[in-house]
Amino acid sequence: VFGAQMITAIVMPVVLYFSLNENGGAGDGTGWFAFAVIGGGIATLGAVILGLGTKEETSALRENKTETSFKDVFSVLLKNDQLLWVAIAYLIYGLGVNIINNFNLYYFIYVLGDAKQFSFLGVINVIIGLLAVALFPTLTMKFSRRRLFFGSVSVMLIGIILYALAGSSVIMTLFAAGLFALPQPLIFLVVLMTITDTVEYGQLKIGHRDEALVLCVRPLVDKLAGAITGGLIGITAIWVGMTSGATAATITPENLFNFKLVMFAAPFVLILIGAVIYRAKVTLTEAEHARIVEELEDKWHEMNQ
Length: 305
Known about the structure:
single chain; 305 residues; mainly alpha; Growth Hormone, Chain: A; globular
């Protein structure tokens, strides 16, 4: 949470600092290249530290596993229906979230006309993101993960509506964008824990443990959603004239309307569809997972008596 939102806070100051031409607040190629070099260096350092510092724990349940080849991947996904439905719901939800998150900077540059204010959104998101993660254990003690998921989605949808109505008000934009971002860490953690629970669900249903496959689904879905929305962002930016040389003053009312349709209306529908699929198809609760683990442990003890 901290690292991802810090990007929002520092991206424009870094880009504009190294840019030879501010280009209406969007920066130029030199500035963006400098940001890429700095970001890539930090990411590489973080990956090295993570790799050197990670140690795998062992347990009896982990011993019951088989090697899964590439051709078995889709078979396992189809057999583990809970994993499949979580992945589908999270993908559709992720498309909606990524569209808004990726368009935030465009909004500040081409609607508000002040890219420097974008850093304040990053600071706000860092604070509320850390707060949301810190509160997650307490919230899950008072509410089920399903209730927390749907409550978070409701807050996000309200945030989208307020964001769409913010217009050129910086304060309203920051408030609405912050409200939209607030539940995202909570939903991420709910989905992550549910996907983790499908490891034992699949082990009981299929007969073997595919932990590596199951746990790679979430980052795979994130990358897929990011790739799809990345292409959509580029196409939309060209369509509505938000390209190099454009400013908030040059964006026509028609292009602004089309931009808001893509940035707000489409994500609203996508997030809502993802939530509906999650509600209808994902039935693996905390209580059900506890029952599955107990059954697996009983079977494991019987096999080793």
